[in-house]
Co-chaperone protein DjlA
Amino acid sequence: MWGKLLGTCFGFMFGRFIGAALGFYLGHMFDKSLKQDFDKVGGFQGFSKGEELHERQALFFSSCFAVMGHIAKSNGRVSEVHIQAATAFMDEMQLFGEDRKEAQRAFTAGKESDFSLKESVRDVREAFGRRFDLLQLFLEIQIQMAYSDGHLAEHEQVLLQQVSKHLGISQTHYLFIIKRYQAEFQFRQQRQSEHSRRQQQSSQHRHQQSHSRANSSEHTQAVSRTSALAVLGLESTANEKEIKKAYRKLMSQHHPDKLVSQGLPPHMMELAKKKSQEIQAAYEYLKKGG
């Protein structure tokens, strides 16, 4: 409005009626451009929304490490494996300086006897209640921490079920996620083992390979296929259409850019990328006829 008004006035002063018409048009274009830029940040609310997003990201970040600390201490003391896992998380997220100290403080707070798991997780649920993909990733991160030593202890399973419940995730879906992660862990180990085996074979002549080793390779391939299907949440009877559908759904849920836009802290994008890479690897293995 002000662009049109001022443009008309200045146009009339310098060019009478023709100048006024030209000034009105230029003022209109200015108002239109200004409105578009203003709307992009949500008008006056854009400033508060940006602050709100930052607060939600900080909540996700601190709560995530606090719950990780609580799970790590669930058997009475934090094992060296869990400390290494937490450190690996921080390294993977490239946390340095004050950000790393903040993660360490949150992890330590979760180990305290007065830490409220219920309150911490419910705060996350209230902040991200309509963003199920983020809530699911939060749970998956906790599962990864608990599974860092290769198995889930009974007390860890109890805590994970509580986290799932407070996040509003059903028991059925919780079991589905647990099964998927266990398959993902197994598939990753099998890929590493297969890579090592191929490196060893490359240094030997083919005619030295025994028949029993060939049978072992066939068995490993069958197990890997079963694991790859389980990573996508599928049974061994799944067909090509079901595999593609499951893959697309999981990739959508774990897409890093999508999760960051919903409130995932930028530092944690690497975790989402890693999840996507595991899903991609399983799908590519199945596509190649694994």
Summary: The chain has two domains: 1-30, 52-195+224-290.
